[in-house]
Structure formats: C-alpha cells, structure tokens
Amino acid sequence: MNPSEFILFGSTHILTLIFIFGISFGFSFYIKDSYDSSKYSTFESTLGYLLIFNELLKPFYLIALGEGAYRWTNTIPLHACHISSYATGLFLLTRNQKYFDFAYFWGFGGGTMALLTPDIELTFPDLDFITLFSGHGLLFFALVYIVFVLKQNITFNSYKNALKFSFLILPIAYLINVIVGGDPGFEANLWYLMKAPAGESLLSFFPDPPLHIIPLFPLVMFVFFLLYLPFHLKNKTQ
Predict the structure, then answer these.
(1) Cis peptide before 210 (omega within 30 of 0)
(2) pLDDT tens profile 106-157
(3) CB-based contacts of 180, cutoff 8 Å, min separation 6
(4) Is 156 within 8 Å of 233 (Cβ atoms)?
(5) How far apart are the first and last CA of the chain?
(6) Of 46, 50, 162, which Cα lies nearest the Cα of 97?
(7) What would the pLDDT profile of 20-66 be if each residue is shown by its tens digit?
(8) Sequence-distant (≥ 6) Cβ neighbours of residue 5 within 8 angstroms
(9) Contact present, 124 and 130 (Cβ < 8 Å)
(10) b/e map of 101-139 (b: 16 or more CB within 10 Å)?
(11) What is the dihedral of CA 183, 188, 192, 196, to 10 degrees?
(12) Residues 6+ apart with CB under 8 A from 4
C-alpha cells in the first residue's frame, strides 16, 4: 500500500493523536492512585532505555529503510525532541531533576507541537509518519507518566534551567549544522536552524532560519512559562 499525502488534522492524523493521548493519560490515570515504586521500577527502567536507544538507533533504520531519503548528515539525532527523549530516559534511570527540567519543557512544548504539526509529507504507513509519531508519542507517554504518576515537581528554577540549556545548545546545534553540511536535500538541520520544516508548522509564520530565532525565542519563553504555571499555582496552595 503506497502512502498518500499527509493531511494536517485529517482523519488519520486525528485518530493517531487520540490514540497517543488516550493511551498516555489513560494508563497514567489508571495506575496513579495505586502506584508502587518497587512494582514499576523495571517498567520505568525499560521505558528509560527505550527512549534513549530509540533515538540513537533511529539514524540506522532510517538510512536502511528510507529508500535513499536519508544519509547520516540529515539523521543526526540531536534535535530538541531527541534531546528531550534522552533527558526523559536519563531522568527515569537517575531521578536527576535537571534532566526533567529540560525534558518537561521541550518535550511538552516542542514535542506536542511536533505531534500537532508534524514535519512529514506522507501519511501512514510511510516510514516518516511511523517514526515521528512513535518517537514523539513515546516521549509524550513518558512525560505524562512522570508528571501524574511519579508526581515530579517543576519549579521556577526548572523554568530558568530549561531556558539556560536552550541558550547553550542553540549555538552548538548551529555550529554542527555548518560543519556537517550535506548535499542538497540531505543537509544537517538541527533545531531547524538552517531551513523550516517541510510541512505546515508554526515556523511558517516566522522569518526564514536562522532569523526566526529572534521572534521565536520570546514565544518559547512564554510557552514554557505557561507550562510552569500549573506547578506554580499548585506549589503556592500547598
């Protein structure tokens, strides 16, 4: 079966979102009141390793199965959502708050945006469709689990850490893009600093990369603050 053009918020897209959101919230709300850390420790470790190794192995199976659409130059697994998956996995394995600080804001902020406006051109069963929704869906599932089952907290320092890490990573990502380069159509484009995503997305309303960072970062700060706000209100009432 040959995949057809991906339609933003078409029936396939909406059903996929319902499946991801339903499994994520359904599972976490089902077990959160009876959660036992010893009972779920193996599950959490497995989920952590799965998040990390899925991203590390993705370039290999994209190149192997992508029918020439991928090379190592455009499969470097260091996009914001890749790093969010690593950070989420490392948090599940170590419980280090700083990993969750980055994972929470970029995973929910950027990861959810990727689910809503995916950078793909073809629908299921295209390889890009499967890898994007499985990877971002797994990340969303893990973050919902951490927030509602593990009840991990977010503070204003978490908000500041997420912005600080972003400022530090952005120039590194841009430098990697420039050094790696790549043939036309296969260029390194970490954090979409070299060109906008192929599909419809929020970046369509901003200047061409990398100048889109100038108006985009204030928006990122605002979105991150909105994500911090529920924890601020909760902590204030306790």
Answers:
(1) yes
(2) 999 999 999 998 989 899 999 999 999 999 999 999 999 999 999 999 999 9
(3) 73, 76, 188
(4) no
(5) 55
(6) 162
(7) 999 999 999 999 999 999 999 999 999 999 999 999 999 999 999 99
(8) 121, 122, 123
(9) yes
(10) bbbbbbbbbbbbbbbebbbbeebbebbbbebbbebbbbb
(11) 10
(12) 122, 123
3-state secondary structure of 122: strand
Which residues, in sequence order, are CB contacts of 140 under 8 Å at separation 6+? 20, 21, 24, 107, 108, 111, 112, 115
Which tokens go with 238? 């306790």
Lookup: tokens for 197 = 């995503």
Quote the tokens at residue 38: 């010893």
Q: Which long-range contacts (CB under 8 A, 24 or more apart) does 218-222 make?
A: 220/109, 220/163, 220/166, 221/163
Q: Which pair of tokens denotes residue 85?
A: 């998956």
- Structure-block tokens of residue 171: 């120039």
| pTM listed for this prediction | 0.94
Tokens 């952005």 belong to 170
Residues with Cβ within 8 Å of residue 165, at least 6 apart in sequence: 101, 102
d(CA 188, CA 183) in angstroms, rounded, equals 9
